Amino acid sequence: MAGFRERARHWRYEELPGVDLLRARYIHKTFVRHTHENFVIAAISDGVEIFHHGGADQYAGPGALALVNPDTPHTGRAGVPEGWRYGAVYPSPQLVAEIAAETTAIRGTPGFTGPVLEDPYAAGLVHEVLRAVDEDNPLAADTLLRVAVTRLLRRVGGPLPQRAVRTAGARAAARARVVLEERMAQPPSLERLAADLGTSPFSLLRAFRTAYGMPPHTWLTDARVRRARRLLDTGTTPAEAAVAVGFTDQPHLNRHFTRIVGVPPGAYQRERKGDGSRAAGRKNVQDPKA
């Protein structure tokens, strides 16, 4: 679109441990089916985002928040020609549980009961968190984050359902996941994996999709990107991380990483390396209105 260009910044602020931060404008960007280890709290500024979640397309426009619990498969794409602009915080499950225990009556593992919430005030709080980070104001950033999470939990919070492994298929899926995690760089074929677990390929495929919301090969790509992120955070180069997690080369990692995280691994790592530099946080601000 004329006058618009895609841009994104994915970073951390040392004074907000356990929280990832994002500012982005996407037009043609499409996020493939993936999950996050942390919660997603994304406040839409302009445009519309569509994301498939819970078996249906969800729509989030200006003043709305897209809310995704950890380990919940979802996608993402533009809902209008001009795309969408948003700011997001990704607090860890531990931080959300701490806030829930102190400020709500939720019992069990806390989470969000709905994927979209129309709440301009809460959306504004998310943007204020990011502005406080830009201004290197840790007191404001931490306070506003906790106020925002508390408001969201009180409005659309509740205990997350516990996944009980009861059936033989669910047990096989859980065992298959362990095997894929252990053999990430050299995974077996579906046929070999099923045979080793004493089941058939299609039975395992159905059970795995039921348990984790995606087939084993899609889950494996998502898991590889997660592990690559952790390696990049520790200083591993993108080329080394690609080989370590089982991608054929760095361009292979780049393609999948960008489709899931939203930025290339090199840009992701540069921002992470700068998370302890307060000056860098101010110098690299993009789209400050987000």
Q: Give the helix tally.
A: 11
Order of strands across the main sheet: 1-2-9-4-7-11
Order of helices and strands, N to C? EEEEEEEEEHEEHHEHHHHHHHH
Instruction: Give the N-terminus to C-terminus distance in angstroms.
Output: 18 Å
- Give me the secondary-structure category: alpha+beta
On the 0 to 100 scale, the average pLDDT is 92
How many strands, what sense, and barrel or not for the largest sheet? 6 strands, antiparallel
Radius of gyration: 19 Å
Global geometry: globular
Give the fraction of residues assigned to helices: 40-55%
* Weakly predicted, low-confidence segments: 276-289
As a percent range, the share of strand residues is 15-25%
- The beta-strand count equals 12
How is this fold's topology laid out?
Blueprint: E1 7-12, E2 19-26, E3 30-34, E4 40-47, E5 49-53, E6 56-60, E7 64-68, E8 74-78, E9 84-91, H1 93-103, E10 110-112, E11 116-118, H2 120-134, H3 138-156, E12 157-159, H4 168-182, H5 190-196, H6 201-212, H7 216-233, H8 238-245, H9 250-261, H10 265-273, H11 278-283
Antiparallel strand pairs: 1-2, 2-9, 3-8, 4-7, 4-9, 5-6, 5-8, 7-11, 10-12
Helix pairs in contact: 1-3, 2-3, 4-6, 5-6, 7-8, 7-9, 8-9
